[in-house]
Write a structure and sequence with these properties.
The complex is a heterodimer of chains A (351) and B (616). With 351 residues, chain A is α/β, with parallel strands linked by helices. Chain A contains 12 helices and 13 strands. Chain A is globular and about 75 Å long. With 616 residues, chain B is α/β, with parallel strands linked by helices. Classes of the chains: A alpha/beta (351), B alpha/beta (616).
């Protein structure tokens, strides 16, 4: 797709958001991924989410590791600083960046190879620490950039393009995130933008570690019969537990819903998540319940999607560390250097 | 029994070694002993020689008393305080002829267990403590204080100084203070009533300490990080660097807690491993915070990939490598300078990194503070090369100092105003010809100055490319930048012999104290040699000049493979035949005795007037 250069000019009447930015201000360069790649749909969901959230693009830092998914930050938010780090190590780089400036929005984009194999440890520890971030795994069950080897999220028994059968148990990133203390956990499908966009918005506004596992078929190496990460398989087995409406603030409920089927959750910043239940017995506020439900449905061969868990009272790493409100990278010398007199006193205590 | 060799008679110039079992509480008692001598105005150089273990293995504590102020390890022992039966035989062998042995005489030992050329001092420590205390832990802990008391009588250490130190240690804990002072006096009283005292070696009050302070290098380096403006630290526990991170936390609690809110003007993460530590440091530095990690050789090995990224993507990061004995787990609690090459050329591909070599805690403080300026100025990883000897031992050194007029050099940072004014921004654009480009902090400007940081090849405007010429252009600029680094790093310290000589010696880091003593000893023997102490890599031009000006140059190091020598040969195109390696790498700190022995042999090879042989 690289032969197509993006036109610089655009329509003068493009809609603008509250900050005066158009959709185009949230785009990046043209994708170099394969035509039809699920990852491109996710990039486009990210663009819509940030445009609609009225976030200034330069207030977002986008970080990734290595792999197809990790290439995608080039294709969205072109006015944001980006960091394509080393394989599996995005979480630590993002953690450091977040420590330096708590005021930016941190978007970590990774893949199943990057986060479930080489970077499983860093994924786990960033969840444990409650780093305030949106962590998206673009999950296709396969190593695309090295041409089709199984990844650690590939289901046992699933078939590779060249016929090999995966014998190893899959790692379920959602289950791990829940167990490790992520305070917002969701799963979605790259082919379902209506579901994905509000989830990304909710994650951006969430304070704490927000994790979204997005099943994203690899059209080149994992979209054939026998694969459990293909468009067809996921469409057939997708079991959404709820639908989410993201609202910047509380507003009147206008649509008609069946009694008891809507739950509203207010986040730290006042934004409201209106959860429309599709399964009456699913409670997204119950972490243990979520884990049980997911295990049961997984055994039944279903891919459960939606907002799976949310702790709207959550706080983040800066709260645990009790850091000052001013970003650490803005502290002045006066606030950092104890000075000569203090050093003299220190010397005196060492004699 | 009268020893066969006349007992050593020396004032303020001797070595006491304590042989203990680790986990028995001996280290604090032994440090108390050393500090009491220091308070009498007599310099000491203590060294805790400990195993990689928590309880039960042999541990030693060596105190060199030196009014002349020699801080290096001397070698040999004048008084052995043998408190560990496990190591009795080897401990006894170490005593110099005419030296002294202090031991617990509660249980009689056969005569074959002693030597006839030393003076034996026996005190029934166990018996005294068993009589006085009922609790077994108390018996053990107070035994240490009892022997400190006995030694104070034997060596004429002022008991008032010990009492005062105990008072400082247990300030506000009266319940512990008095029994400790009492235990000390029990040891003194027994000695005064039953033994010949003082010994031939003893302490005499002097005025040789002055303004100097007594501090561990790791603590000094950590404080340097506070003064240098570090706000983010990420680390993974590893001996001998853990105490640097812990000291940083302690200093920050004291100096960086906001008085009004109680909130922290710093963030410290004990990461899941060294990879995450350096990743956090790189992320924070990329985002404009001064950040560092501290580790040892194995950690540096684990960080290799990330170090290459920081070099290639040009991110300021500071790494403290508190070196220990390698390779692999090696000797985790012993000292070496064996990571010089693994740091200088860390990571795959063509890389070169800035290294700083402090010689003591004072320089550890200075270089730590400086390293953050260098990292920002040069936008590259900076390695501060400490070692266990500097990091974990208490050193007597010049007081730490800071100029209140000093400001942090944040290097080339493009601001909102500069971007708004339309200044051309290319992340890897060499605008000044020094190889150092401008950078922007994320979040600076809504429309300008953002760029994509990556480990892949990029052009001057940070755009991905695999074009060969563009790659070469960038790699050449990185070399120019490394050349630029020379003007910012600490220059070497050159000492002239005061008269023409064809011999020179190059050394660095914790070899400094032993080298000072070596030169004084050699000068007294009429042997003259110029010296150069390397304080940084890339090498200052003065290093090549020094080598060119001498016929033969000894390169003195604490590793097996002459790593600095390799670096000199490789980087300065020096004829290897000119550089004679002098290598000490058994894990103990290098001594003047060793250097003199080695140089003596080699000088003889070059037909120089032979040196008077010194004891090995």
């Amino acid at each position: 797709m690289t032969y197509l250069a993006k036109p610089r000019l655009h329509h003068p009447d493009l809609p603008k958001n509250k900050l005066g930015f158009t959709h185009r201000d949230y785009e990046g360069s043209v994708s170099t991924l394969c035509a039809g790649c699920g990852h491109d749909s996710i990039s486009s969901a990210i663009i819509v989410a940030f445009f609609e959230l009225d976030v200034a693009p330069h207030r977002v830092a986008k970080l990734s590791g290595i792999g197809c998914s990790s290439k995608t930050p080039t294709y969205f938010l072109g006015n944001s600083h980006g960091f394509n780090s080393v394989h599996g190590r995005m979480p630590s780089v993002l953690t450091g960046a977040n420590l330096a400036n708590r005021d930016l929005i941190y978007l970590g984009v990774s893949g199943d190879g990057d986060s479930a194999s080489i970077g499983l440890g860093q994924f786990a520890h960033s969840m444990r620490r409650g780093v305030n971030m949106v962590y998206i795994v673009e999950n296709n069950g396969v190593y695309g950039l090295t041409k089709g080897q199984f990844s650690a999220t590939a289901d046992k028994g699933s078939k590779a393009k060249r016929g090999a059968i995966n014998n190893d148990e899959p790692i379920d990133m959602v289950m791990l995130a829940l167990q490790l203390g992520a305070t917002m956990v969701a799963r979605s499908f790259s082919g379902d933008k209506e579901q994905l966009v509000p989830l990304i918005k909710a994650a951006v506004r969430h304070r704490g570690a927000a994790f979204i596992d997005v099943v994203s078929p690899c059209v080149a190496f994992n979209n054939h019969p026998g694969s459990t990460k293909s468009y067809d398989f996921v469409r057939e087995h997708n079991e959404a537990v709820n639908r989410l409406d993201f609202m910047p603030q509380r507003s009147e409920i206008t649509a008609e819903y069946a009694a008891g089927s809507v739950r509203e959750v207010v986040q730290h910043d006042g934004s409201v998540l209106r959860l429309r239940k599709l399964h009456d017995d699913y409670d997204a506020g119950d972490r243990i319940g979520a884990m049980n439900y997911l295990q049961q449905r997984h055994a039944a061969g279903e891919v459960v999607t939606g907002l799976l868990y949310l702790n709207s009272e959550a706080d983040d790493m800066h709260a645990s560390l009790n850091t000052v409100e001013t970003p650490l990278n803005e502290l002045s010398e006066k606030e950092l250097i104890p000075g000569a007199a203090a050093l003299e006193k220190f010397n005196a205590s060492l004699r | 029994m009268k020893p066969s060799v006349a007992p050593i008679q020396r004032v303020n110039d001797f070595v006491v070694k304590f042989a203990n079992v680790n986990g028995s509480g001996s280290a604090s008692a032994n440090l108390l002993f050393a500090k009491a001598i220091l308070r009498m105005g007599v310099p000491v150089a203590p060294r805790n020689i400990f195993p990689s273990n928590i309880q039960g293995l042999p541990t030693w504590f060596e105190v060199r008393v030196s009014e002349a102020g020699w801080r290096g390890r001397r070698g040999g022992v004048d008084l052995m305080v043998a408190m560990n039966p496990q190591t009795w035989d080897e401990d006894l062998k170490e005593i110099e002829p005419g030296g002294y042995l202090f031991h617990d005489s509660t249980k009689p030992l056969p005569a074959s267990k002693f030597r006839d050329d030393i003076t034996v001092v026996g005190i029934p420590l166990t018996e005294i403590c068993n009589r006085e205390y009922t609790d077994s832990r108390q018996r053990q802990l107070f035994k240490n204080i009892v022997y400190v008391g006995a030694l104070s009588a034997l060596l004429e250490i002022d008991p008032e100084e010990i009492a005062e130190l105990i008072g400082e240690q247990y300030k506000g804990k009266e319940a512990l203070l008095k029994p400790n002072v009492h235990a000390m006096h029990m040891g003194r009283t027994y000695t005064e009533n039953n033994l010949d005292y003082p010994l031939g070696i003893r302490v005499k009050r002097a005025n040789a300490v002055g303004e100097r302070i007594f501090i561990e290098g790791n603590s000094a380096a950590a404080l340097g990080c506070v003064y240098g403006g570090a706000t983010v630290a990420a680390w993974y526990p590893i001996t001998p660097s853990s105490s640097l991170a812990e000291a940083f936390a302690k200093h920050c609690r004291k100096f960086r807690t906001d008085a009004a809110t109680g909130k922290a003007r710093y963030a410290i993460i004990q990461a899941e491993d060294e990879l995450a530590s350096i990743g956090i440091v790189i992320g924070a530095a990329w985002n404009g915070a001064r950040s560092f990690t501290c580790t040892s050789g194995p950690g540096i090995s684990l960080m290799q990939e990330f170090i290459g990224l920081a070099y290639f993507a040009e991110i300021p990061a500071v790494l403290f490598d508190v070196q220990r004995g390698g390779p692999s787990t090696g000797m985790p609690t012993r000292t070496q300078q064996a990571d010089v090459l693994s740091c200088a050329y860390a990571s795959h591909g063509d890389t070169k990194h800035v290294l700083l070599f402090p010689e003591d805690p004072k320089e550890a403080f200075d270089f730590a503070a400086l390293s953050f300026d260098l990292a920002d100025r040069l936008q590259t990883p900076i390695f501060v090369m400490l070692d266990l000897d500097i990091g974990m031992q208490d050193w007597l050194c010049e007081p730490l100092s800071w100029d209140d007029k000093r400001v942090h050099d944040r290097g080339k940072m493009m601001t909102y105003e500069m971007l708004e004014a339309g200044k051309d921004f290319g992340r890897y654009l060499d605008v000044d010809g020094d190889g150092v480009p401008f950078r922007t902090r994320p979040g600076t400007h809504p429309k300008r100055g953002s760029y994509f940081t990556r480990g892949t090849t990029k052009d001057r405007y940070a755009r991905y490319t695999e074009d060969g010429a563009t790659y070469v252009d960038n790699m050449q600029r990185l070399l120019r930048k490394f050349e630029t680094a020379k003007q910012y790093v600490p220059a070497p310290v050159v000492r002239s012999a005061g008269q023409p000589t064809r011999f020179g010696a190059i050394y660095y880091g914790s070899t400094g104290p032993a080298m000072d003593e070596t030169l004084a000893t050699l000068a007294a023997q009429g042997v003259h040699m110029d010296t150069l102490r390397v304080r940084a890599f890339p090498f200052h031009d003065a290093v090549s000049d020094f080598i060119a000006a001498h016929g033969q140059v000894f390169v003195i190091e604490q590793n097996r493979d002459a790593q600095l020598r390799s670096l000199l040969v490789n980087e300065l195109m020096v004829d290897p035949a000119k550089l004679i390696p002098v290598l000490h790498y058994d894990g103990t700190p290098i001594t003047a005795r060793f250097i003199i022995g080695e140089i003596g042999d080699k000088l003889a090879m070059f037909n120089v007037t032979p040196l008077r042989k010194v004891a090995p």
